[in-house]
Known about the structure:
globular; 17 helices; four-stranded parallel beta sheet; Four Helix Bundle (Hemerythrin (Met), subunit A); alpha/beta; Rossmann fold
Amino acid sequence: MKIYNTLTNKKEEFVPVENGKVKMYVCGPTVYNYFHIGNARPLIFFDVVKKYFEYIGNEVILVRNITDLDDKLINRSLEENIPVSVVAEKYTKAFFDDCKALDITPADHHPKATEYINDMINLIKELEEKEFAYEVNGDVYFSVSNSKDYGKLSGKKLEDLQAGARVEANKQKKHPADFTLWKKAKQGEPKWTSPWGEGRPGWHTECVVMSRKLLGGTFDIHGGGIDLVFPHHENEIAQAKASNNQKLANYWMHNGYLNIEGEKMSKSLDNFFTARDILKKYDPEAIRFFFLSKHYRSPIDFNENIIIESSQAVKNFYNTLKSADYLNIKDKEFEYSEVHQQHKNSFISAMNDDFNTAKAISVLFDITKAYNKTKDSAFIHLLIELGNVLGFFTNMEEKLSNSLNDVSGELVELLISYRNRFKKEKNWEMADKIRNDLKEMGITLKDTPEGTDWNIEK
Length: 458
């Protein structure tokens, strides 16, 4: 298996610290709001990474933290006039609810920052003793100048950071890039007692502490969105190296940006969508297909046409499963022939090449075509087996058992053909009547350039 390591800017053979076990830490949400559709990308992708490692025989321990202490939470508590803890509780629950709706398997551990305050204080004390940290008026900063390898993840150089510093930079810092380890408490903010007075830890310290506590020493994979490379992950590496001269993680994986209609997502452009906004319109499997149909390191553009295409692609899989009468053949015995194994090997080869889910999905299409040509039910079992690795078909029985109220698919197609004839004759009244009558029966029609698709409403 080869994984692209952001730390070395190249694909490297994956060798776990402990044979047969993969330890992963993926940065989780700051729970001050509902997470947006861009945040769904690392959630879905690293969900697949975990599933694939397990599929090929590994035990996987996945840690995804919850940042429940941050300036953003404090600002939201002021906006909503509720305590920070209530803000955190509200949006933590929303996070888990939305993850469940997206069929994202929970991590093995979801540590909260507020549960590890004492451990963070101990790390900061250790950094101060080793002269990698200094205190000024109750605030504690990490000294990047004392960190020889600072910038090796992001490729940034200290002299460039110095030159690019703003005029109004914090005058307390020895270097503009020095980052906060401990913040002196302001009135009304959450606070803890420390050797430097009352305050709270900075954001960059929590992940070092929690990953080491739960995964121990150097672990295998640290992941997140590409926006976390600098400063967050860079600062994690610096603290870990300074405290015990050990690597925090061996492989650093980062997914690419999500754009909306070619533009960066932002509230000012009115193109900011939460995951729950999108889930109101689209099936979670369509959203998953959308993200996985492109390589995780590539930027991806979210637009209406692409998500509709993704919905149709997922529908095509289910149409194949329906035509194979999967619910009645799922328990029948089958054997994979050499041909089936070749498809399976192609899937594994794609995933072993830096988790190329786009290629892996193309294998699922090849399997579908092979079944439609041969009617060999072993292809259907293979489709389910490999689709499950990518997180598809998790609610398969529910979707496949949706009835047509005893109306056959052939009759629906016949009614659609009549509707198309009425449309050509510009008999809109009868065309609309067929659409509306089918809708009352729980069948929705969608006109596309290729024809009319129909689906059963949930």
